Amino acid sequence: MAWAFPNLGFRFALQRIVAKRRVSPSLTAAGARVAARRGILTCTNKRPLICGDRQQQGLRNDAVVLQKKAFLGSQIRRLHTKEMNEEQLSSLKVDQKRLMEDLHYTCQWGTGEKWGEAPTETGMARLALSDTDKQARDWFVETAKELGCNVTVDAMGNTFAVRPGLNNDKPPTFAGSHLDTQPTGGRYDGILGIHAGIEMLKVLNDNWVETQFPVGVVNWTNEEGARFPMSMSASGVWAGSIPLEVAHNLREVHPGTATMASELSRISYLGNTPCSYTAMPMAAHFELHIEQGPLLEITNKKIGVVKGVQAYKWLTVKVRGRDTHTGTTDLKSRADALLTASKLILHSHKLATANGALASTGILNLKPGSTNTVPGEVTFSLDIRASKDETVAKMIDLVERDFPKIAAGEDIGALNEGCTPGLPLTVSITHDFDSPATYFHQRCIEAVNEAAHATLGPDGKSLVMEMTSGAGHDSVYASKRCPTSMIFVPCRDGVSHNPAEFTKEEDCALGAQVLLQSVLRFDRQRE
Amino acid sequence: MAWAFPNLGFRFALQRIVAKRRVSPSLTAAGARVAARRGILTCTNKRPLICGDRQQQGLRNDAVVLQKKAFLGSQIRRLHTKEMNEEQLSSLKVDQKRLMEDLHYTCQWGTGEKWGEAPTETGMARLALSDTDKQARDWFVETAKELGCNVTVDAMGNTFAVRPGLNNDKPPTFAGSHLDTQPTGGRYDGILGIHAGIEMLKVLNDNWVETQFPVGVVNWTNEEGARFPMSMSASGVWAGSIPLEVAHNLREVHPGTATMASELSRISYLGNTPCSYTAMPMAAHFELHIEQGPLLEITNKKIGVVKGVQAYKWLTVKVRGRDTHTGTTDLKSRADALLTASKLILHSHKLATANGALASTGILNLKPGSTNTVPGEVTFSLDIRASKDETVAKMIDLVERDFPKIAAGEDIGALNEGCTPGLPLTVSITHDFDSPATYFHQRCIEAVNEAAHATLGPDGKSLVMEMTSGAGHDSVYASKRCPTSMIFVPCRDGVSHNPAEFTKEEDCALGAQVLLQSVLRFDRQRE
Ligand SMILES: [Zn+2]
Ligand SMILES: [Zn+2]
C-alpha cells in the first residue's frame, strides 16, 4: 500500500483500505476531480474516471483502486500538512454535493416529521441507541473503515474513527459531534458535525494528504439526553465528570425500562475500551454545529467562531400562597401564587435585560389546578445564562434578593402599579444545576478563526463572528481534557430541536470547509 | 293527634308522628325546656322531664309522647306563625348544642383529613352518591320522618322533607342545601345548611308551632360537582335548566365509570317523582351557607344577607409563540409564550382592580415543558366575576381589546418597562361558560334582613351586612323558579373546600337562628 506510515507505535494500527461494494454515494468523485486537476491522476480519456453518478457505483470502487495505483506511482506528490503553503492548504475543499448526499442518505434511518415538499424536507427522530441509531452508527463505522480508519468503540458506545498520520505516537486531532437526535429533531443538529468529519476524511484521502499526527472523527453517544435523561452523558463519562455507572444505569424516559447499558449491549456498541480520556486521549476536539440560535442569521454572518459556552444555572422557584375560591375571595384577601409567579417571571426577564443575561422559565406547575380556585402553590423552573460566571452569579443574587420581597408584596420595579395589594406569600428557591462558563482553547479558537478567514477570503471578513455558545455540547466535556473549539453555521430562524430545523447546503459546506481547515491548521502546528 | 291540619288537599299527606328509638341526640331537650318555661308541660318534679343527657334516651321518646299528650290537653296554647307577636316569634330559638351535636354526628359518614386535636377537627370527603353520602341521606330521611315530615325523593335524588302546615294546598317554604362535599372538603359547606333546616323542624316541633303553610328541608344532590363534574346539577334539573338525561349520564371523574343514574339507583335514591319545579313546587328557598370568603370575618360581621350571586364568565386564553432553546435564543429573538402569559395574567388583575371586578387564573398549561426550552404555547383559564353583568361584559371587552395588543408587543400599562422587546405573539380567546348575575327575591331578602336584625337585636345592627355571593349555590337555580335568598355566616380565614374549613359554634347557631326566623317570617306573610 502506498499509505505507508513510518510510526505504528501508536494504538491505531494501520488498516488496509479495502474497497467494498457498500460504500456511500459520491465516495470519491470530488477527490477524483481534484486529483485530476492537480495531475495526480493521469486520465486516459477526458471524462474523469470517477464521478458522483450513482449508476457508476460499480465502477467507482475499482476507480479507488486505480487512484491508489496512480498514487503508488507518484510518491513525490504526497501532501504533508506541515509542508503545504497557505494556497495549497486552502485549495483542499469539501464537496458540497457529496456532503449533502451523504447526510441525507443516513437520514433514511430515523426519518421524522415531514415539513416540506422535498424528500429531504423532514425532521429526524433518531433516539440514542435505538435501532435507527444503530443503523446510522453501522454506516459510520463501515464508511470510516473504508476510508482507512481504525475504529474504536468505548464502554459508552462513543465511536472513534482514526485516520493515521505521519507520526502516530501522539493522540489524534478529532472532529466530533453526535448522530442521535431529539424525538422531534432535525437533520442538522449533531448530524452535520459527523458528516463534516467524514467529508474531511474523504477530502484528505482524495487529495492524498498525510497529516502530521492522526486525525479522527468521534460520534458521541446520547448527546441529546432525550432518551436517556442526561445530555452529553457519554462525553461526560469520557471526561471523568460523570461516573460510568451512573451513565450505564440511566433508564430511558417513560414508558420504557431499558438502560443505557442494556441498549448499548443490545445494539452491539458496548465496547471493550474504557470510556476515558486516558484510554482514548485526544490532541484536540473541533465540532461543527448549527448555531441553534438566530444571531448569525440576524446579523448576516456565515461562520461563528465559538470561544466558549455560556455559564448557566437552573433554579426551582416555589411560591406558596393560599388556594381560595375565585368567586368568594376579594382581591385584597388573596395570596395568589400564580399572580405572584407572573410578577416573578416578568421581573426575572427585566433583570436579564438589565444585566445582559438570559432568564427563562420553561416549566410551570400549579396547585390545585381548577378554574375557580386561586392557585395556592406554583413551582417554576428558572434558567439563568450569561457568557460569564460573574454575570450568572449576580443574576442569582438579584433573584434571591428580589423574589421574596415581591412575594411579600413589596413593589419592585413598579410591578405592583395598578394592582390590588393582597396577602403576603413566601418563596423558596432551590439550586438544581450549575454549569460554569466554558472557555475554549486559544489555539483551537485561532485555528478556527484562521480557517474561517481563509475560507471566506478577504471579502468575507465581515461574515465571521466570534460568539459564545448558548447550549451545551460534547465540546464542553471535551474541553475539560483537551484543547477544543467549535464552529457554528446559521440555521433558519434559529430553529432547532424541531423537524423544520434547516441549514442551507452552502452553509453546511462552508462549515465543513472551516472544520477541515481548522483540523489541518491545528495538525500542522503540532510538535 | 293534636296536629290537626284542616286542609289535606295538597300533595303532602299528614303523617303521624311515631316516636322511634333511632332518634338523633338531643332531639327534644330544648323543646322540653321551652315548653316547661311556657307552662305547656306541667312537670311533676322540679327537674325537667326531658334533657339532652344521652343516658336518658330511652326516657326521652316516652317524653315526646308525654309532651304530645300535654299538648293535646291544652290546644289553646298551640302557636300559629301568623298570630305570633314579634316577641313570641323571636323567642323561638335554635339549640346550639343540639345543632352542633347533630352536625358532628353525621360527619361520621365520610370523615376526611384531620387538621386539629379534637375529634370534630377533621375535614370531610363525602362525594355525591357514595356509600357515605347514602348513610347521611338515610339519616336525613329517618330524622325528618321522625319529626313528622313527608319525604319525597325525585329522579335526581333530591330529597324533600315537608312538615305540614295549617294550610297544605300551597307549596312549602324550604330551607335547602347539600350533604355532599368536595373530596378534601370541610364540615360546614352545605352540611350546615341541611342541619340548620333539621334544627328548624325540631324547634317548630318542640314549641308546638304550626306554620301557615308547610315548611320543608331539601337536600340537593351533587351540589359540588366534585364527583360528577357539573356543579348544582340536580337543582339545575329541578329548575329546568339542565336536561335530566344530561345529568343522569354524567360520568364520575377519572378513574371511575359510574354515572349519576347508576349511582342513584345503586344507593336507592332514584325517586319516582319527576325532578322538576312543577312536580315539586317551592313557595320559597332559603339557604344558610358559610360565606366561603373572608369578607364577613375581615369586617367583623356575623350575618351576610345575600342579595344575589355574582355574574361570571370563564374564558380560555391561548398564547402562541415559538418554542426555542433557552440558551441559544437571545431575548430579542424570542416569542416567549409564558412571559407573555405572565403579562396577560398581571394585566387581567389590573383590569379587575380598576373595574371592581375579580379576575383569576386557576389553570395554566404550557408546551413543550422543559427547563431549557422557551415555551411556544401557553393555555390558561380566566375567570371573570362581578356583581353586575355589565361589569363582567366590560371586563371581557377590555381583555379582548388588550390581550392581542400585549401579545403583539404593545406596551399597555407600562407592562413592558425594562423588558427586551421580542417577537410578536398571537392570542386566541374562547368563551367557555357564562353565568349571568342572579338577583334574589326582594321578599326573601327582606325576610332574612328582618330575621337577622331580630336575632342580633338593636346592638347588633352593625353585625349584619348585605352582600353578593361569589360562588354558585343551589339557590341560584332555585331562584329561577321561586323567591329565594341566602344567609351567610363567617368561616375562618375565608377558607372553604379545605379540610380546615371552620365556623364557630355560635356562628353556626346564629345562622341557623336567622334561617329559622326567615322561614317563619316568610311563612306568616304568605297569603
Ligand atoms: Zn447537538
Ligand atoms: Zn356549598
From TrEMBL, chains A, B:
InterPro entries: Amidase_Cbmase (IPR010158), Bact_exopeptidase_dim_dom (IPR036264), Peptidase_M20 (IPR002933), Peptidase_M20_dimer (IPR011650). Coiled coil: none annotated. SUPFAM superfamilies: Bacterial exopeptidase dimerisation domain, Zn-dependent exopeptidases. GO terms for molecular function: hydrolase activity, acting on carbon-nitrogen (but not peptide) bonds, in linear amidines. Keywords: Hydrolase. Residues 312-405 form the Peptidase M20 dimerisation domain. It comes from the Eukaryota. NCBIfam families: hydantase (TIGR01879). Belongs to the peptidase M20A family. This is N-carbamoyl-L-amino acid hydrolase. It comes from Periconia macrospinosa.
